[in-house]
Design goal:
The protein has helices spanning 25-41, 59-68, 85-100, 120-132, 138-141, 155-172, 189-197, 216-227, 241-256, and strands at 14-19, 47-51, 73-78, 109-112, 143-149, 176-181, 204-209, 232-233. With 264 residues, it is an alpha/beta fold.
Length: 264
């Protein structure tokens, strides 16, 4: 007796990690490491990366690959720590244009997830990196903290970083927390370190780069911290476990929502 061949099932939802891209090869290497960490933490989940510029595959190429593999549902997770121009304008436009170029009628439905920040998990990731750099307990050390971001011309993005810094000061017990920026906004890292060192009760100053991957702006943060002789300089977030958890959290939330925000 012949048994009927089982029906083929369509692939489940895929995760498209959308990164900006950079001329600095360290950026792509960090993004690749982050993708690999996500795959290890969610076996069976199809994870693809697409870049807006400089690196390959571009977002359109990544979507074309997923479409060719039979995926009809894709969640695009921006590799961004704040919601500014790229998250609100650049990425949605890129996704729409890339999806429109796919063959009809087999076109993927794309939903854009929220950006990664601000989120308490990012503070935990920053603390992890600071510990790796040799920093001990905040309360015991009288440490002042400089939370240094890339910078943005978007007032809402800057406000979210300022609010995150205040939350960190309140929850972690740092002697003080100041923000600094590598571009667009002031103060710069070196100035924030010097100002913080003069604060009463601050016995040493640490710098925590609020960036995911190395590059031109993160290098400015490093240079400023060294110029002002910060006592501790943490590495970038990279593929921190907390960042992996946050990526998957953003993916799950968007995947559970009804399709349509960027549906083809």
């Amino acid at each position: 007796m012949r048994h009927p061949r089982p029906a083929l099932t369509a692939p489940s939802t895929a995760l498209l990690l959308v990164a900006h891209g950079s001329r600095d090869a360290r950026h792509a290497a960090t993004t690749t490491a982050l993708c690999e960490a996500v795959r290890r933490n969610r076996p069976g989940l199809r994870v693809e990366v697409g870049y807006l510029e400089f690196d390959t595959p571009r977002v359109g190429e990544a979507l074309e690959r997923l479409d060719g593999e039979g995926f009809r549902d894709v969640v695009a997770v921006p590799l961004l720590l704040s919601s500014a121009f790229h998250a609100r304008t650049d990425i949605p436009r890129t996704l729409r244009e890339a999806t429109a170029r796919l063959p009809r009628p087999a076109r993927v439905h794309v939903r854009q997830a929220d950006v990664l920040g601000p989120d308490p998990l990012l503070l935990t990731a920053l603390e992890r990196r600071l510990t790796e750099a040799g920093l001990g307990s905040p309360a015991a050390s009288g440490t002042g903290m400089v939370l240094t971001a890339a910078g943005s011309s978007d007032a809402r993005a800057v406000a979210s970083i300022e609010a995150l810094a205040e939350r960190w000061r309140r929850d972690a017990g740092w002697a003080a927390v100041r923000t600094a920026y590598a571009s667009a906004d002031l103060p710069r890292t070196a100035d924030a370190v010097r100002e913080l060192r003069a604060e009463p009760g601050v016995r040493r100053v640490a710098v925590a780069p609020y960036v995911i991957a190395p590059g031109r702006l993160p290098d400015r943060i490093v240079a400023g911290a060294r110029e002002a002789r910060a006592d501790v300089l943490a590495p970038v977030l990279g593929a921190a476990p907390e960042l992996v958890r946050l990526l998957l959290r953003r993916f799950d939330a968007a995947a559970a929502a009804p399709p349509g925000s960027l549906a083809a």
